[in-house]
Amino acid sequence: MDIARFVKRSAYEWEIAPTGNMRVPVIIYASEALIRDMDDKVAEQAVNVAALPGILKASYAMPDAHWGYGFPIGGVAAFDPDDDGVVSAGGVGFDISCGVRTLRTGLQRHHIETVKTALAEELYTTIPAGIGSTGHLHLKRHEMDDMLRGGAEWALQRGYGRPEDLERIEEHGCMKGAEPAQVSAQAKKRQQDEMGTLGSGNHYLEVQEVREIYNAAIAAAFGIADGDVVVSIHCGSRGLGHQIGTEFLKEMVIAAPQYGIHLPDRELACAPINSPLGQKYLGAMRAGINCALANRQILTDLTRNVFARLLPEADMALLYDVSHNTCKLEEHLIDGRRRKVYVHRKGATRAFGPGHPDIPEALRAVGQPVLIGGSMGSASYILAGAENNDQRSFSSACHGAGRAMSRHAATRRWRGRAVVDELAGRGIIIRSPGYRGVAEEAPGAYKDVAAVVEAAELAGLANKVARLEPLICIKG
């Protein structure tokens, strides 16, 4: 990216001042090396977001930002519903409430070495993964609507999981305000056999080892220590979320002129928050959030069952579950007063700082866990929301490494079988229904996640707590 148009506010904060139709500046948090490696489209899309009605403070991009649909992936923007603010389906994305959930096993690496291969095979045969993957659940219409209203609470009532799980999930496992009636029959049809499945793309289930602790006090509060084995699950709302996004983007493009909205990019299709269309989308999107929360809850139960069979001594307590494709009503301090605003996070993780009332009480003093996914062959990280980050990014941080090349380019450069063999040589077991998906997600197709996480910390967005290395990866 050409950085000539940026003003360098600090070593990790870069600004594009408002010009033309921009209502607010663009702020990108990144090192100089990361920002130079970003596609020019990141700045172009962030500038377009800065022109949307009702946007507050700035159009933000996280250190892992890359070109997305409308909004850059890694984009954050907040809107005031009482000042013509809009909600954008492109600002949430197609995989509504895609997120990461991490479980503590209570074991260390030596406990699983003797059953590592068997564990990989059992997880692979138990966890449906891949394009169009289906699970053992088939939801009838009334069951689908109950799930879309209830989220992880619904899954718990169906016998999936433990009551204490809900305390460690965003929104306590159930997003209020969901309206299943606003979700199309086609979206529900796509989802009726997909509950409890990983899907494809960058989704995965990983068994990981804690290799390094950066902050012993926060790690202790999170219940993790050097050498611990954890399990991380990365997935979202599957076909239902994609269908919601597809349908509302089309509807918002058509409706924009009647609301007097000039779209700098059709992919930024949006509607006023308080309009009938805006409210309709929010009801459907919240249902999509509940779908993702229920999906990860079911996958958690399936994972616990595998560990119970092979490693019955495993505890499998939930550390945290946090999404990175959402729009939520939150209270933030803006221009000296508290305001309720709609925060879009697309490929960005909520990262509330210490003391925030929405953090579980046991973790509140140290900040919200921020779960950062790596790739099959690179580290993942656990961070904690930093103090005062609400003033920097509406309490947001990065969500992963961020792609460095397209999936098509990755398949031209790597062969899936070779990637699997190379990682096996490093002691990482990969199980996937197809080699093409492995090639698309080759570790080299992503940015340096360590550099991304370092930038997030030095920019004051989140504090590093632990580095995790993959042992087993079930890949969609």
User: Which sheet architecture does the biggest sheet show?
Assistant: 8 strands, mixed
Shape: globular
Measured by DSSP, the beta-strand proportion falls in: 25-35%
First-to-last CA distance: 31 Å
Q: What is the average per-residue confidence, as pLDDT, rounded to a whole number?
A: 95
Radius of gyration: 21 Å
Number of helices: 15
The CATH homologous superfamily corresponds to: tRNA-splicing ligase RtcB
Which CATH architecture?
Answer: Alpha-Beta Complex
Counting copies of identical and different chains, the oligomeric state is single chain
Low-confidence stretches: none
How many domains would you count in the coordinates?
Answer: 1
Structural class: alpha+beta
Structure description:
By secondary structure, the chain is α+β, with helices and mostly antiparallel strands. The protein has a single domain, classed as tRNA-splicing ligase RtcB (Alpha-Beta Complex). It is built from 15 helices and 19 strands. The protein has helices spanning 32-37, 40-49, 109-112, 116-126, 141-150, 152-157, 185-191, 216-222, 238-255, 276-310, 390-393, 407-413, 416-425, 435-440, 449-458, and strands at residues 7-10, 13-16, 26-29, 59-66, 73-79, 86-88, 99-108, 204-213, 228-235, 270-272, 317-323, 325-334, 337-346, 349-350, 369-372, 380-385, 396-397, 429-431, 462-475. The strands form 4 sheets. Strands 7, 8, 9, 11, 15, 16, 18 and 19 form an 8-stranded mixed beta sheet that branches. A hairpin with a 6-residue loop joins strand 4 and strand 5. The longest helix has 35 residues, at 276-310.
